[in-house]
Each structure stands twice: as C-alpha cells, then as structure tokens.
Amino acid sequence: MTEQYLKSIKVGFIGGGNMACAIGAGLIRKGILNPDNVWISSRTNRTHEFWRDLGVHPTLKNNEVISNCNIIFLTVKPQMLDDALETLKSLQQGQEISNEVPTSIKPDSKLFISVLAGVTLDTLHTKLYAIINFPKIIRAMPNTPMMIGEGITIYSSKNAEAKDLELVDTLFSYIGMSQNVPENLINSIGGLSGSGPAFAYLVIEALADGAVKMGVPRPMATKFAAQVLVGAGKMVLETGRHPGQLKDEVCSAGGTTITGVHAMEVRGVRGSLMNAVEAAVNKTNELSKLK
User: Fold this and answer.
1) pTM
2) What pLDDT, on a 0 to 100 scale, did the predictor assign at position 18?
3) 225 φ, ψ (degrees, to nearest 5)
4) Are 70 and 9 in contact (CB under 8 A)?
5) What tens digit of pLDDT does each residue of 212-241 get?
6) pLDDT surpasses 60 at 106
7) Other Cβ atoms within 10 Å of 117 Cβ, number
8) From the CB of residue 163, how many other CB atoms can be counted at a distance below 10 Å?
C-alpha cells in the first residue's frame, strides 16, 4: 500500500479532541495523509484553529464528515456515540448531504474505526447496523504518543475485509506500533498501552522532582528524566533482554542504584504500578457493561 494511495484516501474524524489530534496530526505531520483530504467535526469552534493550521477541513457538522469520507474515525466520548450516529440516518434514507459528494461513495462502502473506550464490536455493530447495511468496523485502542510517531495501537474488527485491515495496520504503523489482537484482550492491553503514558508521565515527573530536591535545575531534571525512560524503553525493545536482567546489570553490589531500587521496593512502587494498570482495566470493563 503506497504512500501515494494513502494520500488519496478521504479520512474523517467525528470528534476533534485529544485522540483525534494524536491520530490525525500524527499522520499529517508524517506526510501520510493529505490534509486537504481530511475532515474533522467538533461541537464547538474552539478546536478548529488547531485543525485549520494543519490544513484540514474543520466543521461543526458531523454529516459533512460522513458524506465526504470513506474512512471515519469515531473519536467522540463514549456517551456521545448515539448523538454522533444520528447524522447517518439521512444517508440511510438516501438523502444526499453534500452536493460535492461523489455518488459512488455509498454508506456501505465506509469503514468505521472506533477508539471509544469500553464500546465493544457487538455494540458498535448493533448501533451502526440500524443505520447502514453490513457496516465495516474496526475497534482500536491507540494512545497519544502516536502524535510524535511513538504510539501503540491495538485493534480488532467485524465485517472488515483483508484490505481494510491492511489499510488500518499501515496507517497506524506509520505512527508507532500496530497489532491486530483478539477483542477479549483489548481492555487488558489498553490498561497498559492506553493509560500507560499517563503513568509514565507521573514517573518522569517524580524522577525529576527527586533530582530537583537534590539541587538539579528543573528544566534539566525534566529533560534527563524523560530521556531515562526513552533510553530504558529502547534498551528493552532493541536488546530483547528481560527488564529484570537489564536492571540487574545497572545494580552493582553495594552501589547507589541497588540502594535506590530498595527504596522503591520499600515504598511499593512496583505494586502501585501493577495496581494502576489493573484499575484502568477494571474501569474499562465497567464502561463496557454500561454500553
């Protein structure tokens, strides 16, 4: 799937918040999507300035996104899904929303990619099937570092064709890791990959605070703390060695690092991080039951 082809596809986002920014801005800044082929809808004009600066088509109307695009990301809050899908009913009834829309673009040719936490493929299918015959659906769980090309996206599908899965995998691979997984793992992995950046930011801030306490200027402490996590992560990915082994290689007998590790273990840092992932997964499971 060539970059020229990717630049030709028309991609829309219903919802212009953080996740839409991470996906859309990440792909545009990488030169993968042509901003003139991207539409974004949001409820207010406040987010439009960001999108205008990228050269896309911002609008207050969801139906403009639906009618102009073949690939539609659902990036609204989960509780707003029903309202967002109301705009599809006019397409179901055969009403042309935009005079500029080619007649070859039909509702059943559209691929929907949902990033709504806790909303299952079955729920999405039920809601979309009431409006569009045989909707093609991808349920994805991305994370915000994709804005700088270092994201993680896991996804599952329903009624999607092989070419759709290839397209989704290609798009997300340009802005980080991408992997097709069984849907029953999405919530569990999402507690790590989706919520994990927030946990990592907290760790960076805490490490920087420790350095500041010991006299390091704040800007320097923050920069070095962030690079510590970048470097450690790359060591795990590129060497393939177990994190425990890499940790042991830094901890010399009776040295400074093992003393610091002991202080972390006494305070239960390892257990706290495990609990954080578990709590995020449990919350996602709760949201799934409400849909």
Assistant:
1) 0.82
2) 85
3) -65, -40
4) yes
5) 999 999 999 999 999 999 999 999 999 999
6) no
7) 20
8) 10
Do 167 and 193 contact (CB within 8 A), yes or no?
Answer: no
Phi, psi of 69 (to 5 degrees): -120, 150
- Distance, CA of 93 to CA of 66 (rounded, Å): 14
Residue type, 147: M
Token pair for 183: 């849907």
User: Which residues make beta-bridge pairs with 141?
Assistant: 154
**Highest mean pLDDT range out of 3-17, 99-113, 142-156, 215-229?**
215-229
Task: Please write down the HEC assignment for all residues of 82-138.
Answer: HHHHHHHHHHHCCCCCCCCCCCCCCHHHCEEEECCCCCCHHHHHHHHHCCCCCCEEE
pLDDT digits (tens, 9 = 90+) for 64-93: 888 899 899 999 988 888 888 776 665 555
Q: How many CB atoms lie within 10 A of CB 268?
A: 11
For the residues 23-28, what does the mean pLDDT come to? 90
Report how far residue 141's alpha carbon sits from residue 199's, in angstroms, rounded to the nearest whole number: 17
